[in-house]
Specification:
This protein is mainly alpha-helical. Helix content is 79%, strand content 0%. It has 38 helices and no strands. It is elongated.
């Protein structure tokens, strides 16, 4: 009301003296206080027409242009004012704030520094420069300026707010909470500090207090989209994603032009597995702000979860172009490249991510997985170890290291990692299945089936675990259960070649040669270069009297395995396969020679598997020339080798694991 009265009085003054630049300038300021920026701008323009050198009108006009988001004009207006008065600290601060809104951080810092040269204890200038340093990721300088501002004025709520935001970015939550709490104690109506305080309390998992602080902020500013989003972030942290999405929607209704709100609702939808909604919101955010790096990376993450790797790669690449220092985006591009089989590029990105953030545990684990896929096992193990040094609670890094230990034949260490992962997260289905496979390799098939069952209980569509349990049933002679599992696995993934071929082995064991051949043929359609599938089809054809067809498959199997042996002579599993191919072909001397060669580098697990394969052949065809001698050779070798034994507590359940 006072401003309205002042405007009426100043209007009468202008009517009395239309040439009074001062009256126009004062009325412009009154309009500005009321938020009537266009009217204010008209009055400041009129004041300057009357008196082009009116310094105060020049500075206030610049301020109004800034509020109208006409930033280039605001900078020009402040520059004119400073040309007239180079010692006007207020105009330096105003132009610095405009630069800050334009993301021109270096220019902003220069202007705030000039203001401080004019007045070294100008707390607003210190806090403003601290804010600019924060946004420019110059954290130490930001803290120094904000500390100095608070030494001069301990109750400066804006300096407290800005320092709290720096601490929040550094994940120094206790320090951030102290600053935001003091800010709201000094000014209980500071909605922004209440909102940030809610965010910190949520990070500390003090959810009741966080909601109370967020609701206080909303009560103070119910029509501010960002304020409403503070409660959304609390709900996100609590895992109440429906409520988070509802609050982000309310915030967007209040401010439909804020790309940040769309991007964070997209993130919420992504966590809710509502991928199409997430993609739509990220796309809206990018359309509004094409250089929004985080939105590009977020959309890439959604595409990756949908296995749309080409689109994911495009978005992660754009995010890295916009923000080359974003270790998360670089690492996620690396993971996408790994999934696409582009391992050299993946390793380059993951190494760059680690250079950017040497404490980034996930990047080490992902690089370790990449090394594992290209069989650089020592490098992989070193990276998994480093990942777990940085984050001992990463159950997925434990699972991956456990899988590597399995590949290396270090089964006791593999089992320890799988069980440590389960202790951290009993709902990690891959850890249960990894544990199962250790026991399968050790010949403890009941324990293997039980552990796979727990994995399937957690993830009913886990095709690999279902098929592996089927294989455990197969080797225990439980043909009906095995067939049920393979059928179930293939209902989830009809193109799972190993599941098709192993179901064929069940049919072979039952003497159903027609179905066995059908399955082995289907497996070869899916994986045409697999020598083992060709051998299995040859075995089924031979058992059903289709000798010529068997010979064709057997010749191709031997040729493929021989090429593999030339390339990887230390692969004893392949040598055992080649040996049994020769046994089926009737070349018993070569079969014996190859079995002896394989035994030189094989462990007990590989020997046990070779014996099972020999049993499968003789069950289908009876003893072949040389098969009894080879069985004695393998049995003696198995007895001679110190078979690995792992102490365990027997079959477990989710309930007794938790207890």
């Amino acid at each position: 009301m006072l401003e309205h009265d002042e405007i009426s009085e100043l209007t009468r003054a202008i009517e009395r003296d239309p040439s009074s630049a001062e009256a126009y300038a004062e009325r412009g300021e009154a309009y500005e206080k009321l938020g009537q920026f266009h009217e204010a701008l008209d009055d400041f323009d009129r004041a300057l027409e009357i008196d082009p050198g009116h310094e105060w009108a020049l500075a206030k006009r610049a301020e109004v242009l800034e509020r109208l988001e006409r930033f280039d004009e605001a900078v020009e207006a402040y520059s004119v004012a400073l040309a007239l008065d180079p010692d006007d600290a207020w105009s330096f601060i105003g132009r610095g704030e405009t630069y800050l809104k334009m993301d021109r951080y270096d220019d902003a810092i220069a202007d705030f520094s000039r203001a401080l040269e004019l007045d070294s204890e100008y707390t607003y200038a210190l806090a403003s420069r601290g804010s600019a340093y924060r946004r420019a990721d110059r954290v130490e300088e930001a803290i120094a300026d904000l500390d100095r501002a608070l030494e001069i004025e301990p109750d400066d709520t804006w300096a407290l707010y800005e320092r709290g935001v720096v601490y929040l970015q550094l994940e120094q939550f206790v320090e951030a909470l102290a600053d935001f709490t003091l800010a709201v104690a000094v000014n209980p109506d500071d909605a922004w500090s209440h909102g940030r305080r809610a965010e910190v309390l949520a990070e500390l998992e003090h959810f009741d207090d966080a909601l109370e602080s967020a609701e206080r902020a909303i009560m103070l500013c119910p029509d501010d989209g960002w304020i409403v989003s503070c409660r959304a972030k609390v709900f996100q942290r609590m895992g109440e994603l429906d409520k988070a999405a509802a609050d982000f929607t309310r915030a967007i209704d209040l401010d439909p032009t804020d790309p940040w709100l769309f991007a964070h609702r997209a993130e919420t939808y992504h966590r809710m597995d509502e991928s199409e909604k997430a993609l739509a919101d990220f796309t809206w955010a990018i359309d509004m702000e094409p250089e929004y790096a985080w939105a590009h990376a977020g959309r890439g993450d959604v595409y990756r979860s949908l296995e749309r790797n080409t689109e994911a790669l495009r978005d992660f690449t754009r995010a890295v172009e916009l923000d080359p220092g974003d270790a998360w985006a670089v690492a996620n591009r690396g993971e996408t490249l790994r999934r696409m089989g582009r391992h050299a590029e993946a390793l380059a990105d993951l190494s760059l991510s680690i250079d950017l953030d040497p404490s980034y545990a996930w990047a080490y684990a992902e690089r370790g997985e990449t090394y594992r896929e290209v069989e650089r096992h020592e490098d992989a193990l070193r990276d998994f170890d480093r990942a777990l040094d940085l984050d001992p609670g990463d159950d997925w890094a434990l699972v991956r290291r456990g899988e590597l230990y399995q590949v290396l034949g270090r089964r006791a260490e593999a089992l320890a990692d799988f069980e440590a992962a389960i202790a951290l997260n009993e709902e990690n289905s891959r850890a249960w299945s990894g544990r199962a496979e250790v026991f399968f390799e050790l010949g403890e098939f009941e324990e293997a089936a039980a552990s796979h069952s727990l994995a399937i209980e957690l993830e009913p569509t886990y095709a690999w675990a279902i098929a592996c349990r089927g294989d455990a049933h197969r080797v225990m002679g439980r043909h009906r259960e095995a067939l049920a599992d393979f059928d179930r696995s293939l209902a989830v993934d009809p193109e799972y070649g190993w599941a098709v071929s192993t179901r064929g082995r069940v049919y072979l064991g039952l003497g159903d040669h027609r179905r066995a051949v059908e399955d082995f043929t289907r497996a070869l359609e899916l994986e045409p270069t697999d020598d083992w599938y060709r051998y299995l089809r040859a075995l089924a054809c031979e058992a059903s009297g289709r000798h010529d067809e068997a010979q064709v498959d057997l010749y191709e199997a031997i040729e493929i395995a021989s090429h593999i042996r030339e390339r990887w002579p230390a692969d004893m599993h392949n040598v055992f396969n080649l040996a049994i191919y020769h046994l089926l072909a009737g070349a018993s001397a070569e079969a014996m020679r190859l079995h002896r060669e394989a035994l030189e580098g094989a462990d007990a697990v590989a020997v046990r598997e070779a014996l099972r394969d020999l049993d499968e052949l003789t069950a289908a065809l009876g003893d072949r020339p040389g098969s009894r001698e080879i069985r004695r050779l393998l049995a003696d070798a198995l007895a001679a080798k110190s078979a690995e034994r792992v102490v365990h507590e027997g079959p477990r359940t989710l309930t007794n694991m938790a207890s």
